Amino acid sequence: MTTAPTAGSGTAEPGGGTSRRRAVVVLASIALVALLADLLTKHLALLNLDDRPPVRLLGGAVYLTLTRNSGAAWSIGADHTWIFPLITIGVVGWIAWMALRLRSLPWAISLGLVLGGALGNLVDRIFRAPGHFVGHVVDMVSLFDPYGRVWPVFNLADSALVSGVVLAVLLELTGRQRDGSRLGKDDGRDTEATPAGTEQRERA
């Protein structure tokens, strides 16, 4: 006698997905790791890079240089710092809503990276100088130029966020859905399995 998997189990769900509980645990775990890693690297940057010339690595492909950014990339929106925490709070709310039907591990990884990156910079906006909700983000990595003229100076939170967004785009392009199904594959299979699909094949 076989029994159906319970809703809270970590077994695969019908349609190739996984349980919502497991997907949410993966999302939260990745977000926490990304957040803690970002806070640690910012702490180390403040200890070791403050009042120091840029550190050249990999033959000049990477520089470590401490900057404090009140805006977004290339200091865009520097005069409206307060708007970035509001945007981040909206992103966090959107991810929480997405988690309600999340049954895909790849999507859990993607959303976890986005959430961890967003929270990492939100902590700076809320708690760092010059004040609450207008704090400057600590950045320390620059590519090909020590002063961010080729590519904006960034931090680990930015890297996690961008990686999560890129992964989300790839998942969308390949038809992978957040509930674990896959467009163009599951839909076609389901149609063939239904009586209506059988009737359509017979008429053809």
TrEMBL record:
One of its GO terms (biological process) is proteolysis. One of its GO terms (cellular component) is plasma membrane. It is an enzyme of class 3 (hydrolase). Keywords: Aspartyl protease, Cell membrane, Hydrolase, Membrane, Protease, Transmembrane, Transmembrane helix. Pathway: Protein modification; lipoprotein biosynthesis (signal peptide cleavage). The active site is at D139, D158. The chain crosses the membrane at residues 23-45, 82-100, 107-123, 150-173. Pfam families: Peptidase_A8. It is found in: Cell membrane. Residues 179-204 are annotated as: Disordered. It catalyses: Release of signal peptides from bacterial membrane prolipoproteins. Hydrolyzes -Xaa-Yaa-Zaa-|-(S,diacylglyceryl)Cys-, in which Xaa is hydrophobic (preferably Leu), and Yaa (Ala or Ser) and Zaa (Gly or Ala) have small, neutral side chains. It is a multi-pass membrane protein. This protein specifically catalyzes the removal of signal peptides from prolipoproteins. Belongs to the peptidase A8 family. This is Lipoprotein signal peptidase. It comes from Micromonospora coxensis. The lineage of its organism: Bacteria, Bacillati, Actinomycetota, Actinomycetes, Micromonosporales. The gene is lspA.
